[in-house]
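Next comes one such specimen:
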Amino acid sequence: MAADTAASPSDDVLRRIEDGIAWITLNRPAAGNALTTDMREQLVAWLEESSADLAVRVVVLTGAGEKGFCTGADLRSQAAAPPRPEGAPDRAVGDAARLIRTGWQRLVGAVLDCEKPVIAAVNATAAGGGMHLALACDLVLAAEEARFIEVFVRRGIAPDAGGAYLLARLIGPQRAKELFFFGDDLPAVDAERLGLVNRVVPRRQLLDVAGEWAARLASGPTKALGAAKYLTNRALESDRATALWDEAVAQELVIGTEDCGEGLAAFAERRPPVFRGW
């Protein structure tokens, strides 16, 4: 199948769609793949498009180079504020919170809400918002050299980009606070031990393993995988009655897919299923 390639206007983020896999690469290696505002908005757009695009069945997110997967926001790239009335302060109450809500929180939400599985292939340092971008993904692969850093305390600021929401659910409040309070570098092997990373591999094998995992997901029943993602994410914040209701509704919807019919037919005919993604 021919690849469909795209780039942001500055080539700072790249996308290639091939064999059902959308490969998205942060492409500012000299800057540790820190995100500019334009890069962040492009990522949100491509993740939202992936939900509806039947040609995309899985997304892989990685970074170029060996310096960083994503080292957070490029603070020098903030969008200019709209004109202010005469006498208005440079920053009014609500400005900072709005910036967080419409910026990194929106990006992390786009990963969590994407209807397709999203794999993070963490090639190097994931710091601050970049760490949370990786942890929002459904599966996390990391190169042996990768490090995860809750860098916020080093700057005297509170965690953002959904960090407390994600970490508390992934590893519990005590472990999360340890990372937030001290801001120490967390090597990939320790991140795996804590449950933040699915697998650590040599850097030279990272994209190969990501491709193998993505290929398996791309050949799977896409709507059923999307339902499994939704139910798992919702289960972390639902009571039992809500979780079981969600499960029943999801099953009702998935049973009506062509892939479900194919899976049942393949079982009856004792052959491997061929799922098409709808």
